[in-house]
Amino acid sequence: MLPAVILAGGLGTRLADVTGGLHPKALVEVAGRPFIDWKLAELAAAGITDVLLLVGHHGDAVATHVGDGTAFGVRARFLADGDVLLGTGGSIRRALPELPDAFWVTYGDSLLRVDVAAAETAFARSQDVGLMTVWHNRNALGPSNALVRGGMVVEYSKQPPPEDAEHIDYGMLLVTRAAFAETPPDQAFDLAVVLSELARTGRLGAFAVAERFYEIGDASTLRETDAELRRRAR
Predict the structure, then answer these.
(1) Which of 5, 132, 159, 224 has its CA 20 to 30 A from that of 112?
(2) In sequence order, what are the beta bridge partners of 130?
(3) 74 vs 220: CA distance, rounded Å
């Protein structure tokens, strides 16, 4: 399987009441374990065993906890944001020398179930520059931000969401280095900028998933995810 980049450098401002600003979101306890434990276990179960964590706020604590990843069934590497925050897109752009031509990108605050092998096969057969996993959301888990037609994401936007969109970005993407060819080095930008351009130019495939995602973006979704993981453990 291709390696995965985990975006784990956010400040976690919406979880400030939980973290107190003293530890990163990745180490927030969920169902008795730091959330990053669940995330790495999820990727390992899907067959992804090479991960690069892009860390920022208290990233040293994440690196200390995860170590080389052996305890979680992965090989873990780390790249810190540094003094200047580059955003989700800029941090990936800076990490390209550490990555092969194609790689996964996923968010460090979400739990997902993706048939990784099937997605990689579909992507390899296409001529696309990126592939977005999507869930038929119908605004259930927030505004639907991906307009899907004919197996392609033809429009992607968070604000405002595309008119008539029914799918949502599931939080796991396959991208190539070519997707970042026109982006500036060492400048801050959001990954959504790249995805929106790929959709606009017909280069972003869609891979539908069957199950909803869980995440810890705020206190409410943290409680929901905690309950779901405890349910799975029973």
Answers:
(1) 159
(2) 175, 204
(3) 30
For 199, the 3-state DSSP assignment is helix
Q: How many CB atoms lie within 10 A of CB 49?
A: 17
Distance separating alpha carbons of residues 200 and 194, to the nearest angstrom: 10
Which backbone phi and psi does 157 adopt, to 5 degrees?
A: -165, 140
Pair 15, 218: CB distance under 8 Å: yes
Beta strands in the chain (DSSP E): 4-8, 29-30, 33-34, 50-55, 75-80, 102-107, 110-111, 130-136, 146-149, 152-156, 167-176, 204-208, 214-215
Tokens of 51: 């991960």
Q: What is the pLDDT of residues 115-169, one digit of tens each?
A: 999 999 999 999 999 999 999 999 999 999 999 999 999 999 999 999 999 999 9
Q: Is the Cβ–Cβ distance between 193 and 159 less than 8 Å?
A: no
| Longest CA span, the chain | 48
- CA–CA distance, 47 with 178 (Å, rounded to integer): 24
DSSP assignment of 143-161:
---EEEETTEEEEE-SSSP
Q: Is 74 in contact with 49 (CB distance < 8 Å)?
A: yes
Q: What is the pTM of this model?
A: 0.95
